[in-house]
Write a structure and sequence with these properties.
The protein is built from 14 helices and 13 strands. With about 325 residues, it is an alpha/beta fold.
């Protein structure tokens, strides 16, 4: 475990050379990566969403492709297509950009629902199907999607099924005055991203991912997770609560966070830490709730406050 956690910290510190002052955000995306999850970054332009994805790819020596989503992008531009070969009389498969290890789906909500749906299979099963043939993704594999929360003209909101496939939804946010000043001095002569070196390999990341599944989870933690999920489904301001996929992702995220903190067992604090980024985007609110400015994060916070938290000695506290 010590060696694995050292590798994780090396990746985080390497990305910090590019994304300054956002360690908590970097920790979340790295934990999502080692848990084999996909991440949706919702934030305003210019805060480093693209740089974060590229820095992560460079840090683990993996292949990286950026897809700039626009209304005219077709599903075949992503998954690839078959072309008839006159010499052989067969159809040859031309690979799409999706066949890489880290994919940046930039401004994913700018493309049509038809094109967005081309990512559904690959995000859930790690494979694509083209003309009846199935192609597996290289591992480790991750989709990092971005969208602008304040721009609505010419956009297509992600459907619930697509949102639910994202392991986490995070926001980077603006840097502080001190952090931005430091960034200016660091980036004055050159972009650190252009000289960023890898600190680990995909093979090592896959080995870490397999160890995370072995992190012990007590029965009380299972009950704690399900109780939080159940509260979201019964909330009066909610149309659809968190899905069973959300329960599984919260469990895996809690295991990943425990592992990152050098523990081979999950604590309630791990669940509470990961609940907001893992669950908030899965809650579908009623229209009246949106008018009241209620958010998915508000629902998750309220649900957590209503559930009894297990303690180490087996008792519970409010």
């Amino acid at each position: 475990m010590e060696q694995s956690v050292k590798i994780i910290n090396n990746v985080i510190e390497n990305v910090e050379k590019v994304i300054i002052g956002k360690r908590s955000v970097i920790e979340l995306i790295v934990v999502a990566f080692i848990c084999k999850g996909h991440v949706l970054i919702e934030d305003v332009p210019g805060v480093g969403k693209t740089s974060l994805a590229l820095a992560l790819a460079k840090s683990i020596d993996s292949t990286f492709k950026r897809i700039q989503f626009t209304p005219d992008i077709l599903p075949t531009d992503i998954t690839g297509f078959s072309v008839y070969n006159q010499k052989t009389g067969d159809f040859d498969y031309k690979e799409g950009v999706i066949l890489n290890q880290i994919i940046l789906a930039d401004e994913i909500n700018r493309t049509s629902p038809k094109t967005q749906s081309s990512l559904l299979e690959v995000m859930e099963e790690g494979q694509i199907t083209v003309d009846g043939n199935t192609y597996k993704m290289p591992e480790p594999f991750m989709v990092v999607a971005t969208q602008n929360p304040v721009e609505y003209l010419g956009t297509f909101p992600l459907p619930e099924a697509q949102l639910d496939r994202f392991f986490m939804k995070i926001s980077i946010g603006y840097p502080t005055v001190q952090e931005e000043t430091h960034m200016l001095s660091q980036f004055k002569m050159q972009n650190p991203l252009s000289h960023l070196k890898s600190v680990t390999t995909g093979k090592e990341i896959m080995a870490i991912s397999s160890r995370i599944k072995e992190v012990y989870v007590d029965q009380s933690i299972y009950h704690f997770i399900v109780s939080i999920i159940e509260k979201t489904r019964k909330h009066p301001e909610v149309v659809l609560g968190v899905s069973p996929r959300g329960s599984l992702n919260l469990l895996r995220a809690a295991q990943g966070w425990a592992f990152y903190n050098k523990r081979n067992y999950v604590l309630p604090d791990d669940v509470l830490k990961m609940a907001l980024p893992v669950l908030a985007h899965r809650v579908i609110l009623k229209q009246e709730a949106k008018l009241k400015k209620i958010t998915g994060a508000d629902i998750i916070k309220e649900s957590m406050h209503k559930v009894m938290v297990p303690t180490v000695n087996g008792h519970v506290k409010k």
